[in-house]
Write a structure and sequence with these properties.
The protein is an alpha/beta fold and 377 residues long. It has two domains: 230 residues, Aspartate Aminotransferase, domain 2; 129 residues, Aspartate Aminotransferase, domain 1. It has twelve helices and 14 strands. The chain has a seven-stranded mixed sheet, with helices on both faces. A hairpin with a 2-residue loop joins strand 10 and strand 11. Helix 10 crosses helix 12. The two termini are 29 Å apart. Bound molecules: pyridoxal-5'-phosphate. The site of pyridoxal-5'-phosphate (PLP) has 14 residues, from helix 4 and helix 5.
Length: 377
């Protein structure tokens, strides 16, 4: 079957900058700086500057960025870390792999990010940290979250893996808590040619601990101060990311204009719940997810029409088989569960054309008309 509008078109994104990328990769090959090294150092300072932050530490991927941040903060066995159930599994895995227990708080029905009104009731004497997730590219409502965290002495770690360049009240994602984690998985707004991630922080001591942890706890070659891990970023990934970072703003602006176009075109459709941008927030639309009735049926229709679509995420983390032992039942987090049942993510990438957006919207309309006809019959 022919794909008329792909969900994501990385080839179209890379094609115009391939010469630049090839030259960057060649430089790494010529200098043998494959693991960590000068290209990583340069990317770290450029990415920190982009985030208006003091430090960035390049690591292997976003999940590792989360894990090392929690470890650096001393979080471990017997501790609880609060996050949301509608996130990628990696957010919770990082908590579990520290030896701590993930605790979930439901999300706001309109923004799909942590509901600050529900945070305090989840805090216990064991709580050590809170990880709000900037889902789909929209920062969580950080002011009340940080205020509650400060009151209880909790570490605030932003999961900014989908939010490169997003802003909250004029401040960049990455500077809204104590530290922030980014993923450069290829499909993210800033994506590597493989796996990569980073921690961004203003905290000199924390960044030093993360740097040590990601390099086997070494303070000098073969002198290990603590037991760490191999969490270094690859030189080739850093070199590719340095090139692609220069195009991130343009990509984010294009995503925002596609989202506005989707919003206008979908406005007349009563059954479609469109994403909103909270006041005083800059959403960077890593994902453009709408909510529809009979989602699976709508998706089958779109797929048949050659429209790429996906679900982020079909099973909330608290209901994953892997977390059966946490003992959460269906109904524990009604908003996250409802969203998981209704979400469909539509094609979204910078090179999307206005015609493609119209094609997608037309197909959504036809899918819902077909569904309405079936329900009426
Ligand atoms: C992508 C992502 C991660 C994990 O990043 P990886 O680089 O794939 O390990 C974590 N949290 C969220 C919200 C993500 O979207």
């Amino acid at each position: 079957m022919q794909m008329i509008v792909p969900f994501l078109d990385l080839k179209a994104h890379h094609q115009p900058i391939l010469d630049e990328i090839n030259r960057a990769i060649r430089e790494v090959i010529d200098s043998n700086a494959f693991a960590g090294g000068p290209f990583v150092v340069d990317f770290e300072s450029e990415f920190a500057a982009y985030c208006d932050a003091s430090y960035a530490i390049g690591v292997g991927n976003g999940t590792e960025a989360l894990w090392l941040s929690l470890l650096a903060r001393g979080i471990g066995c017997g501790d609880e870390v609060i996050t949301v159930p509608n996130t990628f599994m990696g957010t919770a895995e990082a908590i579990t792999y520290c030896g701590a227990q993930p605790v979930f708080v439901d999300v706001d029905e309109r923004t799909y990010t942590m509901d600050p009104a529900r945070l305090e009731e989840a805090i216990t004497p064991k709580t050590k940290a809170v990880i709000p997730v900037h889902l789909f590219g929209q920062p969580a409502d950080m002011d009340p979250i940080v205020a509650i965290a400060r009151k209880h002495g909790l570490f605030v770690l932003e999961d900014a893996c989908q939010a490169h360049g997003a802003e909250y009240k004029g401040r960049k994602a990455g500077t809204l808590g104590d530290a922030a984690c980014f993923s450069f998985y290829p499909g993210k707004n800033l994506g590597a040619f493989g796996e990569a991630g980073a921690v961004v922080t203003q905290d000199a001591e924390l960044q030093e601990r993360i740097r040590t942890l990601r390099d086997h706890g070494q303070v000098r070659k073969y002198h290990h101060k603590v037991v760490g891990w191999n969490g270094r970023m690859d030189g080739i990934q850093a070199a590719v990311l340095r090139v692609k970072l220069r195009y991130l703003e343009r990509g984010n602006q294009l995503r925002r204009s596609h989202a506005a176009r989707y919003g206008r075109a979908l406005a007349g459709m009563e059954e479609v719940i469109r994403p909103i941008q909270a006041p005083d927030v800059r959403h960077v639309y890593h994902i453009y997810a709408v909510r529809v009735p009979d989602r699976d049926e709508v998706m089958r229709f779109l797929t048949q029409k050659g429209i790429g679509c996906g679900v982020h995420y079909p099973v909330p983390v608290h209901l994953q088989e892997a977390y059966r032992d946490l003992g959460y039942a269906e109904g524990a987090f009604p908003v996250a569960e409802r969203c998981a049942a209704e979400f469909v993510s539509l094609p979204m990438f910078p090179e999307l054309t206005p015609t493609q957006v119209e094609t997608v919207v037309q197909a959504v309309k036809e899918a819902l008309d077909a569904r309405d006809a079936r329900v009426a019959a």
